[in-house]
Structure to design on (823 residues):
């Protein structure tokens, strides 16, 4: 009797739970659910610069140009551009028939509104620098005319990147944003920190060279779902509750060997990870000491063991896929793994296995980097550098390194960092004084080259960018490691096709189809 | 009584102001710059543009001045706008506060539903093997990390059994986080209830009641349970505070859309107005609960009067 009673109770509990779980089934096959750890901050393209926000805005808004897999510039909302001989005046001709989601036309006046708002000091946009130093803007028929205070040749490339994404003017009403754009997906609703729902823009006409589908996306809805914890995201992917999920490095390594799943990296991300130094503190004020560290590091060990082959070794300060990246030349100018050479140089400087150079290895918390840091620490130890790893949360790390990079004496410090972009102009941000976290170099030659590349185009600019990289590598200021390395992994079940990630690890869903 | 309530509210407001000033100063002691965090991922502004951003956000002013400005805004009902995304802090927090309160309340029901009877029973059987087993269980319950228990429950019920969604965002998603929090804190409630009850069981009036020949059930219900309620209410109030704090971790594991998650993210990114707003809302909830508990004492025990 008692057993019957227990059985009945268990069945009742099961019935309740099954009832509750009626919605735990897989997502509808006309809906893409993209599970990621954080939600967008805002859909005001001029006010945010986080990757997680751009991942959504890339779907709703559009850019004046689009970039192919080699960084080549193609039409977007503008069909072409002309630049004056002095590089100061740009004329952008708008493409006909580009429609906003609210039915208005995206024309030269709308593009002007974006330029004016994002470069206004009142907006205080983190993305304002992408547009160069704008002196004035004007509209002439189908053309937007932008006059700059100083030549800025990366402008067309930046206008093809997500940082310069453009909203329709009706998107902004006072302090409210209504996410009206011209992109392939239309805004439907947003329950902040939970889910953001988009539906396909039926009238969309694609001109992006990396998208095959000429019209509206194949799938009806696109939902960005926030699931902070990695294991929970994986559970959502495995149960079919999510179509795509951002996996942890360990999960990605496991899934890539599972035929039921696909793992996507972002080879076009424009991300470049590297080792650098507090280069005013001896002995790293000496290029020989910096290069010795370069010879000690086997970047392939980081790639193969630390990152399970999910990133590519990269020997250039400029990331693969960007103008100026030339792996062969960078290997020639920089350092490749040669521990004997590292020991030889360190011996010249008075260090060795019996008299090690004691240093700090200052790093920030990033997914998957811990193992790489330990590998580097071990490699350094093998040549006579005892580096103690100090890990800080990113905000605290930047604060710490901003102080250490300005010091001229103290404990020698080696650190790791990464940068991304759609154009190698980020070298200015990193290496021109003061530079990010004060890493900039006080050197007139480098300063001159960084300035000059902005006034050059085509092969002349490429040559100048190579000169800059040669300077950084020969002097050992930067030891490039790999590309990409953050926000770069996605996974889906193997019945999903057509997903790609483009520059700055932006996902594109236009071609996505889910096979039954 | 009215005077007491007024005095209590004045003290509450003073506590809130002290917490605002405290947190406004402390967040600037922690290393990290929100503007640098904002530009860290993609953009590459010039030093002048960075300075302009800092100025627009008011971060170029001395800390004391920023604190005074913030206090002024709070007095006029404005909690400011977030640094990341320029959203209304009040809107971001108050949209999510009901979710956190719902989670804390559901967990509280589970925690008291399990903890109170177990604590009561352990005290009643003090010194027996039942007491030992229950208290070992309580120690285990307190010791289990919430994120671990949460993930185990999630993987079992959502992935293995497929009974519950991983993150539906609706009431079905409340069950597992509430159980995770509730089970952990039921252990605390059980231990605290046991201590309170053991004290009550040694009181003269219990011995007298038994000596009068009252049935044991009546002794327990009428004479033992009611006097211990004051201690239990105090325990519940303390545990509710813990639950609100614990929700920060559990909300993250279960993607429950409460203020704990947004707080964690804001702290990592040094979004000062969001952190200040979170502390203010959190402190307000705790202070209000403490006032309600004080009032509940008087209701439960007529001997308690407030002047």
């Amino acid at each position: 009797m008692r057993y019957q009673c227990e059985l009945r109770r268990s069945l009742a509990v099961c019935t309740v739970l099954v009832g509750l779980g009626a919605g735990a089934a897989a997502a509808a096959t006309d809906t893409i659910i993209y599970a990621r750890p954080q939600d967008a901050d805002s859909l005001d393209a001029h006010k945010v610069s986080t990757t997680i926000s751009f991942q959504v805005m890339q779907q709703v808004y559009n850019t004046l140009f689009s970039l192919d897999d080699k960084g080549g510039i193609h039409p977007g909302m503008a069909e072409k551009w002309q630049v004056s001989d002095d590089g100061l005046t740009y004329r952008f001709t708008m493409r006909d028939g580009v429609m906003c989601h609210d039915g208005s036309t995206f024309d030269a006046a709308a593009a002007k509104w974006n330029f004016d708002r994002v470069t206004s000091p009142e907006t205080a946009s983190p993305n304002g620098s992408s547009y160069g130093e704008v002196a004035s803007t004007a509209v002439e028929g189908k053309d937007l005319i932008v006059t700059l205070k100083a030549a800025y040749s990366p402008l067309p490339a930046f206008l093809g990147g997500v940082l310069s994404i453009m909203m329709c003017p009706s998107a902004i009403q006072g302090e409210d944003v209504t996410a009206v754009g011209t992109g392939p997906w239309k805004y439907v609703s947003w329950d902040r920190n939970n889910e953001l729902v988009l539906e396909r823009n039926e009238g969309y006409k694609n001109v992006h060279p990396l998208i095959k589908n000429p019209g509206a996306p194949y799938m009806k809805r696109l939902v960005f779902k926030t699931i902070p914890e990695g294991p929970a995201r994986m559970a959502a992917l495995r149960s079919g509750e999510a179509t795509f999920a951002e996996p942890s490095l360990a999960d990605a390594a496991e899934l890539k060997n599972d035929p039921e799943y696909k793992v996507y990296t972002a080879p076009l991300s424009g991300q470049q990870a590297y080792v650098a130094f507090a280069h005013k503190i001896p002995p790293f004020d000496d290029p020989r000491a910096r290069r010795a560290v370069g010879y000690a590091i086997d970047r392939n060990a980081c790639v193969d063991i630390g990152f399970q082959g999910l990133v590519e070794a990269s020997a250039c300060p400029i990331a693969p896929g960007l103008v100026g990246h030339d792996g062969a030349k960078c290997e020639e100018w920089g350092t490749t793994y040669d521990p004997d050479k590292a020991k030889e140089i360190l011996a010249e400087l008075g260090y060795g296995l019996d008299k090690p150079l004691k240093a700090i290895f200052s790093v920030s918390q990033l997914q998957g980097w811990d193992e790489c840091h330990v590998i580097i620490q071990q490699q350094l130890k093998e040549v006579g550098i005892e580096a103690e790893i100090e890990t800080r949360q990113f905000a605290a790390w930047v604060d710490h390194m901003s102080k250490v990079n300005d010091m001229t004496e103290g404990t020698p410090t080696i650190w790791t960092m990464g940068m991304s972009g759609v154009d190698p102009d980020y070298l200015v941000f990193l290496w021109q004084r003061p530079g990010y976290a004060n890493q900039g170099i006080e050197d007139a030659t480098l300063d001159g080259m960084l300035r000059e590349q902005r006034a050059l185009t085509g092969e002349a600019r490429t040559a100048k960018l190579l000169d800059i990289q040669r300077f950084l590598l020969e002097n050992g200021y930067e030891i490039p490691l790999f590309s990409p390395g953050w926000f770069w992994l996605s996974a889906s079940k193997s019945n999903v096709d057509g997903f790609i990630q483009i520059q700055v690890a932006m996902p594109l869903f236009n071609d996505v189809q889910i096979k039954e | 009584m009215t005077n007491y309530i007024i005095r209590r509210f004045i003290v509450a407001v003073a506590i809130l102001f002290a917490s605002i000033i405290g947190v406004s100063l402390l967040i600037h002691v922690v290393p990290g710059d929100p503007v640098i965090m904002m530009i860290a991922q993609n953009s590459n502004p010039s030093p002048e543009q960075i300075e302009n951003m800092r100025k627009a956000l008011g971060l170029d002013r001395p800390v004391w001045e920023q604190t005074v400005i913030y206090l002024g805004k709070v007095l006029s009902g404005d909690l400011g706008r977030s640094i990341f995304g320029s959203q209304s802090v009040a809107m971001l927090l108050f949209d999510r506060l009901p979710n956190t309160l719902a989670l804390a309340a559901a967990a509280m029901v589970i925690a008291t539903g399990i903890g109170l009877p177990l604590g009561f029973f352990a005290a009643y059987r003090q010194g027996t093997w039942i007491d030992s087993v229950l208290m070992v269980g309580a120690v285990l319950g307190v010791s289990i990390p919430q994120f671990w228990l949460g993930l185990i429950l999630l993987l079992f019920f959502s992935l293995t059994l497929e009974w519950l969604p991983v993150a539906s965002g609706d009431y079905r998603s409340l069950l597992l986080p509430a159980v995770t929090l509730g089970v952990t804190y039921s252990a605390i409630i059980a231990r605290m209830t046991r201590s309170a009850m053991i004290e009550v069981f040694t009181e003269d009036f219990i011995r007298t009641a038994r000596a009068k020949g009252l049935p044991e059930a009546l002794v327990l219900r009428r004479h033992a349970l009611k006097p211990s309620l004051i201690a239990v209410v105090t325990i519940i109030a303390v545990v509710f505070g813990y639950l609100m704090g614990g929700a920060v971790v559990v909300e993250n594991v279960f993607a429950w859309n409460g203020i704990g998650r947004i707080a964690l993210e804001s702290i990592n990114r040094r979004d000062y107005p969001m952190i200040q707003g979170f502390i203010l809302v959190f402190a307000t909830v705790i202070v209000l609960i403490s006032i309600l508990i004080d009032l509940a004492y008087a209701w439960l025990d007529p001997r308690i009067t407030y002047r």
